[in-house]
C-alpha cells in the first residue's frame, strides 16, 4: 500500500511539474523597476521585423569595463523580476540591457498560447534588441539568457 501511494504521489508531482514546465506565463505589470532601487536607467523600445514594439531597459555601467551585456529573461514574468541580476552586473561595471518579450511587461501585447513552451516570434524580439544594442554601442554584445 505504501509503495502504491508513493508511486501515485510521484506520478502526480511529475504530471504537475511537466504541466507547469510547458506553460508560458507573461506578466504585464512590473513587480520592480530600476527606479524602485534608485538605479539610473534609460527606457527605450525597438520595433521587430514583423512590427511589434519591444520594451527595453538600459542600466549603463559606470566602470571602465562598460562591456554591453544583453539579458534575455525566461518565459515567465517580465524583466522586472530579473532586475537583481541586471543590477548586480551594472554595479560590476557592465552596460546592462534587458527587454521584455512580446506580450510581457511593457512590450506590445501578443496573443500568447500559454500551453506552448516557446513562440518562434520571440526570435524576432531577440534579434531586434541584439541588433539595436550592437548598433548603439558599436561593439560586440555578450548575452546572458535564461530558459
UniProtKB/TrEMBL annotation:
It comes from the Bacteria. The keyword Signal applies. Gene3D superfamilies: alpha/beta hydrolase. Residues 1-22 form the signal peptide. Keywords: Signal. This is Alpha/beta hydrolase. It comes from Candidatus Coprenecus stercoravium.
